[in-house]
Amino acid sequence: MTGNTFGSSLRVTTFGESHGRAVGVVIDGFPADFEIDEAGIHTELQRRRPGQSKLVTQRQEREQFEIFSGVYEGKTTGTPMMIMVFNEDTRSKDYADIKDLFRPGHADFTYFAKYGHRDYRGGGRASARESVGRVIAGALAKQLLAKFGIAIVGGVVQVGRVRARHYVWEQVERNELRSVDPDTVTAMREEVEQARKERDSVGGIIEVVATGVPPGLGEPVFGKLDSAIVSALMSLPAVKGVEIGAGFTAAAMRGSEMNDEMDASGFRSNNHGGILGGISSGAPIVARVVVKPTSSIPREQQTLDTQLQPRTISTKGRHDPCVAIRGVPMAEAMLALVLGDALLQDLATRGAREPYSPRPYLKLGKHLD
Amino acid sequence: MTGNTFGSSLRVTTFGESHGRAVGVVIDGFPADFEIDEAGIHTELQRRRPGQSKLVTQRQEREQFEIFSGVYEGKTTGTPMMIMVFNEDTRSKDYADIKDLFRPGHADFTYFAKYGHRDYRGGGRASARESVGRVIAGALAKQLLAKFGIAIVGGVVQVGRVRARHYVWEQVERNELRSVDPDTVTAMREEVEQARKERDSVGGIIEVVATGVPPGLGEPVFGKLDSAIVSALMSLPAVKGVEIGAGFTAAAMRGSEMNDEMDASGFRSNNHGGILGGISSGAPIVARVVVKPTSSIPREQQTLDTQLQPRTISTKGRHDPCVAIRGVPMAEAMLALVLGDALLQDLATRGAREPYSPRPYLKLGKHLD
Amino acid sequence: MTGNTFGSSLRVTTFGESHGRAVGVVIDGFPADFEIDEAGIHTELQRRRPGQSKLVTQRQEREQFEIFSGVYEGKTTGTPMMIMVFNEDTRSKDYADIKDLFRPGHADFTYFAKYGHRDYRGGGRASARESVGRVIAGALAKQLLAKFGIAIVGGVVQVGRVRARHYVWEQVERNELRSVDPDTVTAMREEVEQARKERDSVGGIIEVVATGVPPGLGEPVFGKLDSAIVSALMSLPAVKGVEIGAGFTAAAMRGSEMNDEMDASGFRSNNHGGILGGISSGAPIVARVVVKPTSSIPREQQTLDTQLQPRTISTKGRHDPCVAIRGVPMAEAMLALVLGDALLQDLATRGAREPYSPRPYLKLGKHLD
Amino acid sequence: MTGNTFGSSLRVTTFGESHGRAVGVVIDGFPADFEIDEAGIHTELQRRRPGQSKLVTQRQEREQFEIFSGVYEGKTTGTPMMIMVFNEDTRSKDYADIKDLFRPGHADFTYFAKYGHRDYRGGGRASARESVGRVIAGALAKQLLAKFGIAIVGGVVQVGRVRARHYVWEQVERNELRSVDPDTVTAMREEVEQARKERDSVGGIIEVVATGVPPGLGEPVFGKLDSAIVSALMSLPAVKGVEIGAGFTAAAMRGSEMNDEMDASGFRSNNHGGILGGISSGAPIVARVVVKPTSSIPREQQTLDTQLQPRTISTKGRHDPCVAIRGVPMAEAMLALVLGDALLQDLATRGAREPYSPRPYLKLGKHLD
User: Fold this and answer.
1) D163-205 confidence digits (pLDDT tens)
2) Where do the DSSP E strands lie in C17-67?
3) Which of A129, A142, B35, B110 is the most buried (most CB within 10 A)?
């Protein structure tokens, strides 16, 4: 029931291939009478746009979106919005050589195994370009969440072996690496450029945080909020792991250390990352995703062709040496979509209680923000 | 659309609270005419059963399941199977003291925030006891997968600060820690006992592996196989992170190192963890989940009551000092359910191609197993 | 994605076979903190109970339901409610003779074709007994709807060739035929008894009406309210058609006649049956379902056996000569479930508009009630 | 969970408004490697096209569709197909006068009640123009079904008071009324023209039939095949009722008459309309839908404006005097989508049985075709 559709109440369906005519999205379930901020969509698309700096792919796309339905006189009508970006700079001939080859680390082999017939150009549907539709939908979700006081930020916290030590969220968009730590920018840039020089690529870790989330979002047990978040983030290309709050460090912790105590001002710490039992606690929601080094590298590698014969490959085309950088707006978009969906679902049952047991959102004091 | 139901083609709905009358499951979409191996269900339930050793909770439950529907003369009929275990050893009075308190690290606060009215006894629905239904369904999914040559194993790879160094899967069920590494059993046991002595608890990491998975399972882009797996594993209680293949180590890797080369014998390495572009590759599927230290500890901690007034709490009741141990069969069950669902979905479109483009599963040589 | 689960926000999964151990239901998504009226559930179950009069099947079931989860101290907790009725009066040996025969008009052949292995006793899952779970869930949905001023009634409007001429809803439960027209009770009874005497059965038509429904329920285009209603009603056993408002008579009408004009007091007529463009209008929702004559008749009929060899059959067992009578509470239950689900879905988006464009339900004057 | 998406395994999402930029569809779950017959899509679109004859609306649309994704070198890739038709002949100024008025029989009032803000031009999303996307998707579903030997036909069986007496399916596309009965064409045309002369409109009934459907499609109990069919057909604009097989005539029938006996050649009659217990029987699937007379009529009618003040209205614009005629390809499309979806779902569980209990489709002799 998923496939290319995400969400239950706020539903997003993306379509389009990297080197096809267009990539786009249908958004269904978005509330009516909402004044769309088109500039806000534009901003998000520019953040994920290729060609922003030397650290990302040099493909040139203006990323001009067009709204085909669901908006009338600048406001949503409650019917599905179809929003699309036409592909412009598709140098498909770059891919003629690898038409019959499986690029290591790519989805070439698995798409071939599953579908047989595939659009190999630029990774087709498995390309990061598919995320254009997600970023558009995420931008709208962010605008909706903002009405409820919910804000989402994201940044790079690790590139290769360089980790952020302290977080200055305001600095993220002021450095081309989107590092949360201004002091690590130079070292991170070095990590990327070194990899590129060596005809290689490098991985990274992104952190996304949502603040202002009211307690109560999430639908246990399979619709847990953290379950939905990791599913959403994992659906992004190149992601190999996701963690919430203390994440993998929890393995070596004691309960007395991990448990977040509470007092009149709320939670004293946030090892739980804003989610307990699958339901938002009101503390900031904190998620981290690891993005593997870009699979497309110009080095020679051993692989197979579609006849399953051994071949040597070296990938040309224009690629991000560190895909984590452009992954930030994508990860934020997915978090926004999950929260928008969870908010609508929670409002349904909250609204149903109006006649017999009205229940406003519980307010805690605030240690954390 | 999720809530308490998991899966699209193979659908599982669990119900029941820790100290209610029963916990159970409805399984829908399971193929007909399948001879159920009841002993196999029993075995899995015994693996997750409390009271197995001193390292787990001392609650005594025989975990005798009863089949109420969907099976006739030992075989499935294709209609929903309802299978249930009656709760036996519920000492609900243990919980009277904490009726109005939010146990730190528990879902008490968030359930209260969301639902208002809740069954506080033993965590109610947020208890690990809810997983009884998952393990039953997972046992059946395993039996179905076995017909396709797919096998699932799981074990503990880290307890507190002790990590497994080498893997001997055959040893997992022969040590009470379910460690994959027989050489670390003593140190792991020490880690758990030390924590218990200090009235504390400790975290851990579980690894689950599926072998024999044919290439082609998974439905990009939001129904990616890894997206479904992390969602399923994250829905288990106490899990704070999930990774596939190289996982978080990919951040510090280079593309040339991460990319798994191929030759006539298949993949030479398995950093991708058996999934590329969200679709199974035929290599073993490898996932790791981090389980936080048990929240219920007898130490005093600061918290709030339902009036949001500060209080001190120390949790009694019978609890696992390291919940990762009993988490192994739960994690295996969730992986089995994801693969069963993905298999059915893939068979649908594979079957549809029969008249115009029949497509058997692609066979690779085997480096890995 | 449906199978045995109905609804999106208010989700109902039924399980159980006619001659199995039990029939029951899991209800998920029902709002928390709701005080359950168990007597109300009992009442609805008694209305669909066999053995009420000579006009229905003589199977004796007390229909005592038990709540296994999701309710604590008399109130819902927001977690799934599992409610079940154990089967008592199962004379399965009545069915030994027809084990290998396909009863004409029954699902025997199609279940065999689809599943191969089946529980033939009493129709198994295809029995009207499956509706016990629906009636339980519908009773709860009715209780929720009542908080919003929505009420549902149902009655028989045709038995065989006898049609109701005027409607006195208050009389429905005072006659054993559940006829809406007290003046036709005698003729309808005659129709049923005549059929039974002739070792035959007879069809009928049920009408269900929901009043107090606010305008705005329903999710175009595939989630239209009438689309959901006909789907729900058609899922009941023996139903062969469903219509809304003017229904099939609209074929012979002119637009000027069909269109319901409006004035300050609302709609002047209700040919639209309370739904326009798939969305509730505030006028009463009116649906009619045709129930075919019971398939099980003692007369000899030609059929096949499971070897596809010609055979003669005459069905024994205890059966309703006119299944429309007991179909009334079933049809009401399904209408209640659809409206409960649509209400929750509508509340989600209504609630989302609170911060930017609050939208209370539109009030019309009332011509109709 | 539905809204603008239909289907579980074969999923269709439509978007677009009557007077917006375009109307279109995203099709997800369609099997890969399928050679698309674009001419077949064109043919179906021309059948539903306005302006075909004097009996339908005079809006002029060429209905040229464009494929934006999911097809590569003429074959499906298994990824979502987005197919769209740009609107051309939108005379939106025709609607300026009724901007604030609720046209009787239309969705104007209910959309206003639900959404507040709406695109009133030409009915916006509630227009029959939305069905362009359905017909495109239905055309593809028909092509897929054809590979399994399943064919779908449809025709008009009643216009106003004129009913078809005998069926000659081959004649349907040879008369502008799409009547199944060539002998009633003249009378039907008279019925339409008379209505138009009187500035009025007239209703009708459409019958759709699927042949070659193997036994076993449909997922009881809520995913019954007839339940899915009536839901799909009811989602079309202007439909007020749906019936299967004997339909509403079953009310006055006896069981001995209604039950379809079987012999070695299969079913002797088809009162069940090809579906028993919600599962296809192998006999032709027969469904009828009633289409109300077009709501838009030039006559004066009483209504309200958006301030709920009484007003008089007479609808201009270009409208079908009998919308049943163009409804035929729409109804066929919906039946094709349901069967395509049910086929994929059935193939999933059939395929799963391959290793332990392979089950080919059961073959009956054929009385009926």
Assistant:
1) 999 999 999 999 999 999 999 999 999 999 999 999 999 999 9
2) 22-28, 65-67
3) B110
Q: What is the rounded distance in angstroms from the CA atom of residue C126 to the CA atom of residue B138?
A: 27
CA distance D346 to B109: 44
Spell out a b/e string for A347-369, using b for 16 or more CB atoms within 10 Å of the CB, else e.
Answer: bbbbbbbeeebebeebebeebbe
- Taking CB atoms and an 8 Å limit, are C125 and B79 in contact across chains? yes
Residue D312 is part of which domain span?
A: 5-365
SS3 C279: strand
Farthest CA pair distance, chain C: 69
Torsion-angle region of residue A97: left (phi > 0), alpha (psi -120 to 50) or beta? alpha
**Cis omega (within 30 of 0) on the bond before D153?**
no
Tokens in use for A60? 């040139």
Residue A141 tokens, joined: 């979700």
SS3 A307: coil
pLDDT score for D123: 84
How far is the alpha carbon of B5 from chain A, nearest alpha carbon, in Å?
Answer: 6
**CATH number, domain with residue D125:** 3.60.150.10
Calpha distance D253→D241 (Å, rounded): 20
Residue D140 to residues B298, D9, D10, D62, D336: CA-CA distances in angstroms? 64, 14, 11, 19, 9
Q: Which of D9, D348, D355 sits opposite B147 (nearest CB)?
A: D355
How large is the greatest C-alpha to C-alpha distance in chain D, in angstroms?
Answer: 69
H/E segment holding residue C283: none
- Report CA Rg, chain D: 21
Question: Residues with Cβ < 8 Å from A225, sequence gap 6 or more?
Answer: A217, A218, A219, A275, A278, A279, A280, A285, A338, A342
pLDDT means per 10 residues in chain C (369 residues)? 88 96 97 97 91 75 92 96 91 78 95 92 89 97 98 98 96 94 97 95 98 96 98 98 98 97 94 98 98 94 94 82 95 98 95 91 80
Amino acid of residue A207: E
Give contacts of C79 with chain B, Cβ < 8 Å: 4, 15, 17, 119, 124-125
Chain-centroid distance of CA C104 in Å reads 23
Q: Which residue has the tokens 């917006």?
A: D20
Per the structure, how many domains does chain B have? 1
> What DSSP string describes A152-166?
EEEEEEEETTEE--S
Chain C residues in contact with A220 by the CB 8 A cut-off are 79
Rounded to a whole number of angstroms, the distance from the CA of B25 to the nearest CA of chain C is: 9
Q: How many CB atoms lie under 10 A from the CB of residue B148?
A: 19
Residue type, B94: D
Residue D266 to chain A, least CA–CA distance (Å): 36
